[in-house]
Design brief:
The chain is α/β, with parallel strands linked by helices. It is built from eight helices and seven strands, in the order βαβαβαβαβαβαααβ. Strands 3-2-1-4-5-6-7 form a seven-stranded parallel β-sheet, with helices on both faces. Helix 1 packs across helix 8 and helix 4 (108-136) runs parallel beside helix 5. The protein starts with 7 loop residues before the first strand and ends in a 6-residue tail after the last strand.
């Protein structure tokens, strides 16, 4: 038996990367999974992997920059599975030209769009999921933070959004029943599309190999982590035995800037 048997998890941004890894780990632990992203072909691929694990799975296309689309995603999950126990707010990242996201020349529209992607989208998903969790007297909300959720150094909107997740979490836990927990899981540099070394090399005015080596030096283990390393901690935070873990910022990052 898995620790998530009988539970339903909605994992946003689960077509690839950390979202995919967490969805698969929760499925291994017994959860039925609703996968969500913007790309149906990616969702279909992950859905096949979940099915191979013997779990029920469905997919929903959702735009993480549109509140109504997020609302529809949550509603579709509850209607499809009859419950919504776990919300993994994984979606986030960077959109738009990175050169237009620096302090001295930040594009205003890009600031708003990236802030919505990394913070406001998690607000709406949580806001719409909470009534189901309150009704069933069980809920686990997990935010996907970042090393930049606790420190400076990232691009403005991204860093502001990730810091905002922690503040929102700390407010929420005092206003929810004890049967619902909220935590923030923080990866460091991880082998995903967000870690595009060619693009980052250009931003830092160096080459891809050099910027990758720079980022490897930012954690104590001197390496880039794999998405699958986030899965076990996410599954633990989603489980019934984690009832006493709430309002926590938990890092799986190889010792990032400690």
């Amino acid at each position: 038996m898995g620790r998530l048997d009988g539970r339903t998890a909605l994992v946003t941004g689960s077509g690839r990367g950390i979202g995919r890894a967490i969805a698969l780990e929760m499925a291994r632990e017994g959860a039925n999974i609703m996968l969500s992203s913007r790309t149906q072909s990616e969702l279909d691929s992950v859905a096949e992997e979940v099915t191979a694990l013997g779990r029920e799975v469905d997919t929903v296309i959702s735009d993480a920059t549109d509140a109504e689309s997020i609302k529809d995603m949550v509603k579709a999950t509850a209607e499809r599975f009859g419950q919504l126990d776990i919300l993994m707010n994984n979606v986030g990242g960077l959109t738009g030209d990175l050169h237009q996201q620096m302090a001295l020349n930040h594009d205003d529209a890009l600031f708003e769009k990236n802030l919505f992607l990394n913070l406001t989208s998690a607000y709406y998903a949580s806001r719409y999921a909470l009534p189901y969790m309150v009704k069933q007297d069980y809920g686990r909300i997990i935010f996907n933070g970042s090393g930049y959720a606790k420190r400076g150094g990232g691009l403005m909107a991204y860093t502001a959004g990730k810091h905002g997740l922690i503040g929102m979490m700390r407010s929420m836990i005092y206003q929810l029943p004890n049967s619902i927990t909220v935590n923030t899981l923080c990866p460091g540099w991880t082998n995903t599309q967000l870690a595009d070394w060619d693009v980052l090399g250009e931003l830092y005015e160096t080459d891809a190999a050099t910027v990758k080596a720079m980022m490897e030096q930012e954690n104590a283990q001197k390496r880039i982590l794999e998405p699958e390393e986030l899965g076990p901690m996410a599954a633990l935070l989603a489980a019934p035995e984690s009832a006493g873990i709430t309002g926590q910022v938990i890092s799986v990052d190889g010792g990032y800037k400690i």
